[in-house]
Specification:
This protein is α+β, with helices and mostly antiparallel strands. The protein has helices spanning 2-13, 17-32, 83-86, 97-103, and strands spanning 52-57, 66-71. The protein has a domain at 1-37 and 48-76. The chain is extended, with a radius of gyration of 19 Å.
Length: 104
């Protein structure tokens, strides 16, 4: 699934060379800063999870025309869990609207 999405992304972005360079620069910057890391295939037996990504292209913007969006809800099969499904959920830290209004 990851390779299929990557090929779809590449065929969509390669038409516009400056856009492809900008997307590549974003990915390289994220790798350099430690946000993402390169996959090394060492045939582990333990399961791994990968975040799919795609480009969001905004022709109307002057500075940032392309953005990288990661898809944590993608599943490798219908019965499998996504990365988001496997994350431990914590308490809801957003205040309740009613309590905020009453305190106001």
């Amino acid at each position: 699934m990851c390779m299929k999405r990557l090929h779809q992304l590449h065929s969509r972005v390669k038409i516009d060379t400056p856009l492809l360079r900008e997307y590549d620069a974003i990915i390289k910057d994220q790798e350099k800063t430690g946000i993402i890391e390169q996959v090394v295939d060492n045939n582990d037996v333990e399961p791994r999870h990968f975040l799919l990504h795609h480009a969001v292209i905004r022709k109307d913007k002057q500075t940032t025309k392309v953005g990288v969006v990661f898809d944590g809800s993608a599943k490798s099969s219908k019965d499998d869990l996504s990365v988001n499904d496997r994350l431990e959920r914590g308490p809801n830290l957003a205040p309740h609207l009613f309590d905020s209004i009453v305190k106001f």
